[in-house]
Amino acid sequence: MAQGQPAITPPTTSSVAVAPTTAAIQPKGRGIKPRSYIPVLCFLGPALALIAFFVVYPSIKTIYLSFYAQNGIGYNAPSTFTGWDNYTGLWSNDQIRTSIRNNILWLVLVTPVTVILGVLFAVLFDRVRYESIPKSIVFIPMAISATASGVIWRLMYADDPHTGTVNAILSHLPGFSPLSFLGDASFVNFALMGAQIWTGLGFAVVVLSAALKSIPADLTEAAKIDGANEIQIFSRITVPLMWPTITVIITLTMIGVLKIFDLVYTMTSGGPAGSSDVLALEMYVQSFGNANPGVGSAIAVVLLIAVIPIMAININRFRTEGQR
Questions:
Q1: What H or E segment, with its residue span, contains residue 69?
Q2: What pLDDT, on a 0 to 100 scale, did the predictor assign at position 13?
Q3: From CA 219, how far away is CA 232, in angstroms rounded?
Q4: Do the Cβ atoms of 141 and 198 come closer than 8 Å?
Q5: Residue 18 located in a structural domain
Q6: H/E segment holding residue 229
Q7: Which residues of the chain fall below pLDDT 70?
Q8: What's the rounded Cα separation, in Å, for the pair 44 and 174?
């Protein structure tokens, strides 16, 4: 060893860092302790119990009853397993076929009219100085139950001009005479649709107006500077940015139209001669009027199947929006 250099001693076991073992680097248990589930169950338990009792169980029971022919209502009523007969019999029943056609007609007419009027009113009200006043007026029907709305419009459509508001107006117009809005089979569905549009338009206007308010003013100002007119701004900026909200209104309106019952039951009860019948009303008539809950349950399942795709599209859209 050269003189002046320090002596190098070999490392001892105590001076060498020992690599941690696998057990040493394992994190401590991070799972939720069983005791921590108790507060969660205390909060969610009552809600889950109510959902199970009032939603899950009735749905399963309805599907079960749809495969049986039951004479009468109640647990003691005799029933016979019929398989798919209740479903196949729906298409051979003339009244149920009329109900299906009417529901399709409601979907085709009520949904686009409600959405288009909702967008137009939202845009027009946005240009009014005191926009809260017309919005409140349009929203008033939402504060009224569907049954009360049916009674109101039944009086407004009354054949007697001294009672019916609509016929009173028509009687003062040249060339018009009082019409039987609810007694004419060729016109009754359109009269009911008008009442439904009046009832649901307020919700569409308020929601779409909120979506319109969320559009940045800089975009419209920049479009005006670039020479865009009002129609171009509406079609290329306003509607595309409001489209997510418009799809919500479309889906909610479609669901409401598919399960429409109380307005039709209050105003016409499916008349005249069943021309205004809809599926939800026919479900009620078959289950309780004809004491045939098997057919009524089959109609309910058909309505459920029709609503599921609409709900799935809406949920998927919300999930996509949340991931952005």
A1: strand 68-70
A2: 47
A3: 12
A4: yes
A5: no
A6: none
A7: 1-35, 72, 74-77, 321-324
A8: 64
CA distances from 313 to 273, 279, 316 (A): 36, 22, 5
> SS3 of 35, please?
helix
CA dist 173 and 42 (Å) reads 65
User: 271: buried, middle or exposed (CB in 10 Å: 19+, 13-18, 0-12)?
Assistant: middle
3-state SS class at 316: helix
Q: Pairing relation of β-strands 79-81 and 68-70?
A: antiparallel
Alpha helices (H) in 214-292, listed in sequence order: 217-225, 230-233, 239-258, 262-267, 279-284
Q: Is residue 232 part of a domain?
A: yes
5 part of a folded domain:
no
How do residues 7-59 score in pLDDT, each as one tens digit?
555 554 444 444 454 444 455 545 555 567 788 888 888 999 999 999 999 99
What domain range is 185 assigned to?
Answer: 85-323
For residue 171, what are the CA distances in angstroms to 69, 162, 183?
51, 10, 18
Task: Tokens 């399963």: give the residue.
Answer: 60
Report in angstroms the alpha-carbon separations of 250 from 11, 108, 205: 78, 11, 12
pLDDT at 23: 47
Is 7 a domain residue? no
> pLDDT at position 16, please?
46
Helices 132-139 and 94-126: angle between axes, nearest 10 degrees: 170
Spatial contact of 115 and 246, defined as CB atoms under 8 Å apart: yes
d(C-alpha 33, C-alpha 39), whole Å: 12
CATH code for position 297? 1.10.3720.10
> Torsion angle, CA of 275/281/287/288, rounded to 10 degrees?
-90
When divided into structural domains, the chain yields a total of 1
What distance in Å separates the CA atoms of residue 280 and residue 97, rounded to the nearest whole number?
Answer: 13
* The two structure tokens encoding residue 27: 């994190």
CA distance 197 to 227: 36
